[in-house]
């Protein structure tokens, strides 16, 4: 079955990414233990797992930013041997420069990439509109709320229209209400753009609320222990508990974490 995305024509430009038996050791310590996965073009996949299980390490490897010990990453079927450039990345910490306005922070990415500035500016403003922060384009990061800063980070990650987006606990530092709204806005943006997304989280609501598929990781050394295909209509509601199947998915993940002793009750 196809991933339930809104704009299949755009997804054709998105990338596919595959991990084959990825192992990462730091000295004698195994952080990622033989992980294989495949994310199709335009698919939204979350990686959920307890702190320290190797999620960030796996994402950095998938982005070509960290070497793997053994195994391979394939992007559009080709083995990755350098950092991916056709990608946008969002981290938990917004990493915005405080001496640049929101707009200029986004445009920095365009400058570094040598993109023509006028179309980049227009595109940045279009992204700001979609993310509900157009009114704050000329504000400095210190003048923005945490949620707005993360919205700027998302715009920065998309300014060059990459074929893939990787997000490492992007909403981890936000309050619950802000998280619910930004989750919804990200879902709408994704439905419109059809990007391939690898999303890292330890929130069940985010994983189930956003994904086509959820990959569940074991505690360290990280392995993928379950894969859940989320069959809920989009866009998904703020209160996911309205769907009986949300509770079934959530129970399944809780049961795994209980089995691994991550949840003890
Ligand atoms: N550069 C590194 N050197 C040594 N150990 C590391 C390094 N990066 C991560 N680790 C270790 O690998 C494990 C997984 O880390 P990480 O991928 O950050 O986990 P997660 O993102 O799931 O919380 C942790 O035990 C962490 O301490
Ligand atoms: Mg991490």
Could you explain the architecture of this structure?
The protein is α/β, with parallel strands linked by helices. It folds into two domains: 178 residues, Rossmann fold (3-Layer(aba) Sandwich), CATH 3.40.50.300; 69 residues, no CATH class. It is 34% helix and 22% strand. It is built from eight helices and ten strands. A six-stranded mixed beta sheet has the order 6-7-8-3-9-10, with helices on both faces. A four-stranded antiparallel beta sheet has the order 2-1-4-5, with helices on one face. It is globular, with a radius of gyration of 18 Å. The N terminus is likely disordered. Magnesium ion (MG) binds next to α2. Adenosine-5'-diphosphate binds next to α2.
